[in-house]
User: Fold these one by one.
Assistant:
Number 1:
Amino acid sequence: MLDLEPILLVGAGGHAKSCIDVIEQEGRFSIEGLIGLENEVGNQILGYPVVGTDKNFPTLLQNNKNILITIGQIKSPELRINLYEQLKKYNCNFPTVVSPSAYISKHAVLGEGTIVMHGAIINAGAVVGDNCIINSQALIEHDVTISAHCHIATAVAINGGVNIGQGTFIGSNSSIRQNISIEENSLIGMGQQVLSDCTAGTQIPKLKG
């Protein structure tokens, strides 16, 4: 049996459960515990203990250098960015985690701390930055560039040649036309069709049911 590398997860909510499942399926890491909020310490998340809060980083990171940020991102990337920058000061390793049911072209590039979830496809020439979430069944087509700290939600389709700026969220089932740019810190709501360039900070609400 292979020895698994230990890893700590930062975040103990719903997104962490999905990340745990991907990590278990990938089979590279042994989850040593999760870091959460004060009221979460002592809880179990899918059988793994919440072992502390960010106040315990100096102690917890002495013997655990592999870290994955498992806090979700919808309204703002700020918390994930702040944690990433804070953890960088401890010289942590940020492995890239990929579900075995995802397809990643050998000609694609994935940044550190990024997770690619079940059924996602990342095609040739695509580049995904650091600390991103590529969620279940998302399609990232050829030559797409996704900057750091983005969340591409479930079943999003990003067509070829698109550029997505740092800290952007693309909501579930949205589709992005080929060769356009969505600049940094934009929020594209669920179910949208984006057909032209978006300036920095664009906010497009989700479609109403």
Note: The longest strand covers residues 29-35.
Number 2:
Amino acid sequence: MNREKQLKEIQKRPVAHKLKTIIEYCRDKTVLDIGCIGQDFTVRNANWIHGEVKKVALNITGVDTNKPMIEQLRNEGYTMYADDEINRDQIQQHDIILMADVIEHVDNVIVFLEFYKQFSTENTLFIISTPNPYSIRQMFNILLFGRPGINPEHTVAIDPGNFMEIISRVHLEMVEFWWLHETMAPVKFYNKVLYGLYRLLYSVRKYWAPNYLVVLKVSSQ
């Protein structure tokens, strides 16, 4: 399928819940979770992705840059590595390589993906989620506040079209695509009001969804 057809198909894809979707892909699989500590919730939250996946995976290995927390979690029985200490002798190939909202933080997305391909086989699935820079929430942020809401730790904003070019350069191919709902429920009153409006709008125009998740595998070509 060429890129234009893929983009048209993407526009028809349903909007899913991130944690539920990730859990189903990781169930009974060996998982390598990249950026496992700095996810949507803290490690003490019941919705921490790594902790929830650990309950259903065959086994799970975490990688992160937060060395103090890595050491603490190791003492609690988690299998954890710092990003600068992993190699093929320590970490074997996995069924799933999970990158939940990580790629928008790295210095070079292509180099990052190329590095972690070494821990994959032809059957490995890469599960990658990232914010959608064209979400309706960002449009309203510009309308109401004059600028989009940007995480200061993000280095890039990647829309699905950009993402297709990135994966083509690292010889990965798309298996599945999901738009994603907001991860956290709104707290402020005006956000609760807007949230209902956002959901209505991106149910009609999926490209306005807050986030998206892509399932990839190593390209056969």
Note: The chain has one domain: 3-218.
